[in-house]
Amino acid sequence: MEDLELQLKDVEKKLQAVKEFIEETGIDLSGEYEALEEKRQAIMKKLYSGLTPWQKVQIARNKQRPNFQDYIDGMIEGFMELHGDRLYGDDRAVVGGIGYLNSVPVTIICHAKGKNTEENIIRNFGMPHPEGYRKALRLMKQAEKFKRPVICLIDTPGAYCGVGAEERGQGEAIARNLLEMSDLRTPIVSVVIGEGGSGGALALGVGDRVLMLENAIYSVISPEGCASILLKDSSRAHEAAKYLKLTAQDLYDFKIIDGIIEEPVGGAHSDVAGTVRRVKDEVFKVLQDLMKKDIDVLLEERYKKIRSIGAYIE
User: Fold this and answer.
1) Strand partners for 77
2) Confidence at residue 2, expressed as pLDDT on a 0 to 100 scale
3) What is the pLDDT of residues 87-141, one digit of tens each?
4) How many angstroms separate the CA atoms of 265 and 268, rounded?
5) Which helix (H) or strand (E) covers residue 305, if one does?
6) pLDDT average, residue stretch 179-202
7) Which helix (H) or strand (E) holds 250?
8) Taking the model in full, what pTM does it have?
């Protein structure tokens, strides 16, 4: 892995040198540039095909990964954001509203992370308060009333665990979402686009289809939290990441998720527009299938899907 990283750095350095030479002299070296670019792509493919769970955690947390705004802008036409839970206030860590996905009216609800410190402070680093989950549920019930399918984009380290959040019923808000989503009479598609952390992610994760991006993660606890509790050393997070089985590939094998959306070579952040396009196409394809089903059949299938998760020993 380290050898590949060194090779990649060397090729990128040469690419930059050739680019600067072309700009300075005007000499056509496009053949050399294309050969180096092909070599870079080949190394990237090798590098990203052998990632460890901990490396996938780092990619899932990359600040340049496409976030809620990229997906809304690239997927939803005529988006109108709706605010507030009608009980306490508006949580900016959850963004939701209505719009059109390829001319189909939908409700979209997203965990909201920023791409820099200033944006993340506004969005509370993607960690919702109870009012965020209650806003999400309000929009889901509205979607049910008007027969709009629901799309949930999951990207959170977890629900906010501050005193105020606990006082306002964080646990109850998450539990209420799980209950109501399991019986919501409209199709639901959930996609883990980055981090899927604990109940904070699960509160938007009860769907007829649950998809994950190739390098996203989905887990009951963060690797750091797991290492701190079980290994008594948070610096062993890289070990905990392996034990948690939090990658899309692991979760697909366990039948906890229903599909994996391939990312561009180099991760979603290397081609934001391409990633958004892939997610849009996959979500639309799944929704077309779900919308053909009778709602009672859909609910029965959702119930069986939820009940089949996990294993037990008699």
Assistant:
1) 100
2) 47
3) 999 999 999 999 999 999 999 999 999 999 999 999 999 999 999 999 999 999 9
4) 8
5) helix 295-307
6) 95
7) helix 248-253
8) 0.86
Over range 55-66, report the average pLDDT.
91
**Where do runs of H (alpha helix) occur along 104-162?**
117-122, 130-145
pLDDT of residue 1: 47
Please write the tens of the pLDDT for every residue from 295-304: 999 999 999 9
Q: Is residue 312 part of a domain?
A: no
> What angle do the packed helices 2-25 and 30-49 form, to 10 degrees?
160
CA distances 111 to 49, 56, 125, Å, are 28, 20, 10
Domain that holds residue 71: 57-307
Asked if 190 and 211 touch (Cβ cutoff 8 Å), the reply is: yes
Q: What is the mean pLDDT of residues 72-90?
A: 96
289 and 175 both lie in a single domain = yes
pLDDT confidence of residue 257: 94
If one counts the domains in the chain, the total is 2
Answer yes or no: are the C-beta atoms of 113 and 125 closer than 8 Å: yes
Question: Does residue 170 have a pLDDT over 50?
Answer: yes
136, 179: one domain: yes
Task: Name 227's Cβ contacts closer than 8 Å, sequence gap at least 6.
Answer: 233, 234, 235, 236, 237, 239, 240
Question: Which whole-number Å values give the CA distances from 37 to 7, 30, 45, 183, in the listed order?
Answer: 13, 10, 12, 50
| Helical (H) or strand (E) element with 180 | helix 170-182
Q: Is 285 exposed, middle or buried (0-12, 13-18, 19+ CB in 10 A)?
A: exposed
Q: In this structure, are 45 and 64 located in the same domain?
A: no
Q: Helices then strands (H, E): number in the chain?
A: 14, 8
If asked whether residues 83 and 6 sit together in one domain, one would say no
Cβ neighbour number for residue 146 with a 10 Å cutoff:
10
Q: Clarify whether residues 182 and 273 are in a common domain.
A: yes
Please report whether residue 313 resides in a domain.
Answer: no
Say whether both 69 and 46 belong to one domain. no
Cβ atoms within 10 Å, residue 22: 15
